[in-house]
Amino acid sequence: MKLATALLLTTVASIVNGQWILEQEEDDYDAYEDIDENEEVTWETDEEDENKGEKPCSPPPSIRNGRVDIWGEGLLLEYSCDDKFYAVGSTHGACDLSEGQWTIEPPLCVEEGCPALPAPKNGVVSVDESGGVATFTCRLGYHLVGSNMLLCEGGRWTGIYPICAVSPKPTESPLANTTDTKDKSKPVLKESVRIEDSDETCFHSHVEPPSVENAVMETSYVMNEIRGRYITIATYTCFHGYKLKDPEANQMYCRNLKWGAPEVPECVPENEPCLINNGGCQHVCVPGDGGYACACDPGYTLGQTGKDCIDVDECAIDNGGCHQECHNTLASFFCSCFSGYVAKGHDCVGK
Fold first, then answer.
1. Tens-digit pLDDT profile for residues 17-50
2. Where are the domains of the chain?
3. Which domain of life is it from (predicted)?
4. CA dist 190 → 162, 197, 254, 297 (Å)
């Protein structure tokens, strides 16, 4: 019986200032076995069978003004911020071996002590309790141009200070084609996202939310009390003359770089049937109390459907008022004289 000694190495990995630091801890393991001194010693284990189907996680990304530590055989991680900085977002996560991905996104490390920020004209600025995150929104009828959130770092705000620009209003019938409107109003989304499922990936990767026709959109970065982490939310407000099809469906949420919602916001005309495909009228839609009517441009008259317009033959009635010849044209007419006559007003006189 001889003593076989195996040296077990445990590796602890961490990231400091953007570089990986590997540290190994040694443990001796003794076992008595009938071993030939000249025979190579191997230790059998069922670990390979147990790990079948598992996907290890890649090294997690580093963060500014902080570090990440990994332990628990590479299955657990913790982000921590440097002195005088605090974390915005989740700091503790684990490796999901079924997906090979970490369960959290890297947090932001922000600092206190930045000067007070003025609100942009026609906008509002909100600063969190610690004074390190400033979020901007615009009033109804305006939209943000610039960063919707600034972070405090080094005693100053980082990002592009935004302005609130006037949102454009539609200059033509915004719903001229019902089929096209449906496609434009409801962006193609790869998944339905609920607020309890949302995360901050779109904010970190600058993935803009989709636009909704006849609506202005504002984004905000807020704490999700359900998940205990910060998330990105897009809130939609309809233009004047429009309303939300479902008053409760006014927001979209982000998850894994994709925007979605249980029901996508949609703005529909507010008691104005003429805004929907011009009421079906070929020329002019005239709204009225509880309904509407169709009308035609000069030179046309309503057809049998009450919506289409046909050309009026002015020459069919009293020869259009012409003395000799009347010529009908689309939406108009003109007079002429026989050979040997000249026009004098609507009259024709001999040469």
1. 555 555 555 555 444 445 455 555 555 455 555 5
2. 54-111, 113-168, 195-269, 273-311, 314-350
3. Eukaryota
4. 30, 14, 11, 45
Nearest C-alpha neighbor of 252 from the set 264, 237, 270: 264
Cα(345)–Cα(351) distance, rounded to whole angstroms? 15
Residue type, 157: W
* Residue 119: count of CB within 10 angstroms of its CB: 14
Range 273-311 has CATH code 2.40.30.60? no
Local structure of residue 39 (DSSP, 8 states): S
Are the CB atoms for 286 and 299 separated by under 8 Å? no
- Residue 349 burial class via C-beta count within 10 angstroms: exposed 0-12, middle 13-18, buried 19 and up: exposed
Residue matched to tokens 């195996």: 6
The two structure tokens encoding residue 15: 């990231």
To the question of pTM greater than 0.85 for the whole model, the response is: no
Give, in degrees to the nearest 5, the angle at Cα 60 between 206 and 190. 45
Q: 314-350 architecture in CATH?
A: Ribbon (2.10)
Q: Which band of pLDDT confidence, cut at 50, 70 and 90, is reported for residue 337?
A: very high
Task: Give me the CATH code for the 195-269 domain, please.
Answer: 2.10.70.10
Distance CA 235, CA 219 (A): 6
CA atoms within 13 A on the CB side of 262: 7
Residue 183 is predicted with a pLDDT of 40
Residue of 214, 216, 122, 138 lying closest to 171 (CA atoms): 214
Q: Distance between the two ends of the chain, CA-based, in angstroms?
A: 142
